[in-house]
Amino acid sequence: MQKKRILITGCGGMLGQAVYERFSTDYDVKATDIDVNEPWLSYLDVRDHAAVEKAMLSFKPDFVFHLAALTDLEYCEAHPDEAYKTNTLGTENVALLAKEFDIPMVYISTAGIFDGQKDQYHDYDTPNPLSHYGKSKYYAELFVRQHLTKYFVVRAGWMMGGGKKKDKKFVAKIVQQIKAGKKEIFAVTDLYGTPTYTHHFAQNLHHIIQTRYYGLYNMVSGGGATRYDVAAEILKILKLDSTIQLVPTTTDKTSTFFSQTYTAPRPRSEQLLNLRLNHRDLNTMQDWRVALREYIERDWIHEV
């Protein structure tokens, strides 16, 4: 029996790697990115409508997974035109062609589309993004939902994954400080989110696309945490919690490092609840602490 085909955009990052590993075992996958950093990647710029059209016509996918995005909040805030061109217009290009060729689309959205006025957000809460990154992703999400009927819009939380090669986010930054011999590590206590492991995310995504329950889904690991909580758990897993001091700090102006380094507006809380996944009995995500331990033991434990 011939395998179904999936065209994936933006597959060169931490989430793309996990999605490729999970889906390439039982699908024929064409993985693309503008940064061709793996032998299994080919070049595709989603901002180029003609190029996306050519890729779809030649590969004839049964699904298109749209992962391509600019995700650096500070870069997006400083270069809003680029953020909207890539995150919004690029998504519109993919969505219009998915509609034209009647291909179900998976779009990866973000918890960063909320304003943080609530402690937790379920799938039906109304977004109010604060940053250009959040706005560019939310406008893209709206376009998909308004123009397609066969879609999965999946909102991710604070992503963890990718290991030494791909991880440019919080876990890698903490591990790098440990490797550098730091005996004192600072982490903020006043930002809340839902850490989400890329491999668990890819597995749950594999589960839901087997259904025809199209629509919008929050899909994050269980439980909420601050950056401080995540850093503390990393030290605990690595058995370094008695030798490295974890220092709590905040994002307000008294925290000079944070305010000068992270200049884009961030919601106080972007904790998500998997309400629709739970109601449809499609939630395979595990608690974030279980996910973090699995990630550390898989990718980092031999690095420190």
SSE pattern, N- to C-terminal: EHEEHEHHEEHEEHHEEEHEEHEHEHH
Count of strand segments: 15
Give the neighbour order of strands across the main sheet: 3-2-1-4-5-7-12
| N-end to C-end Cα span | 46 Å
What's the CATH first level of one domain? Alpha Beta
Q: How is this structure best described in words?
A:
The chain has 304 residues and is of the alpha/beta class. It has helices at 14-23, 49-59, 73-78, 80-100, 132-147, 163-166, 170-179, 198-208, 227-237, 256-261, 275-279, 288-300, and strands at residues 5-9, 28-33, 41-43, 63-66, 105-110, 120-121, 151-156, 158-160, 184-188, 192-193, 195-197, 215-218, 225-226, 245-249, 271-272. The chain has a domain at 5-162 and 196-221 and 276-286: NAD(P)-binding Rossmann-like Domain (Rossmann fold). The model has no long low-confidence stretch (mean pLDDT 93).
Topology:
Blueprint: E1 5-9, H1 14-23, E2 28-33, E3 41-43, H2 49-59, E4 63-66, H3 73-78, H4 80-100, E5 105-110, E6 120-121, H5 132-147, E7 151-156, E8 158-160, H6 163-166, H7 170-179, E9 184-188, E10 192-193, E11 195-197, H8 198-208, E12 215-218, E13 225-226, H9 227-237, E14 245-249, H10 256-261, E15 271-272, H11 275-279, H12 288-300
Parallel strand pairs: 1-2, 1-4, 2-3, 4-5, 5-7, 6-15, 7-12, 8-11, 9-14
Antiparallel strand pairs: 10-13
Helix pairs in contact: 1-8, 2-4, 4-5, 7-9, 9-12
A few lines on this structure:
The chain has 304 residues and is of the alpha/beta class. The chain has a domain at 5-162 and 196-221 and 276-286: Rossmann fold, CATH 3.40.50. It contains twelve helices and 15 strands.
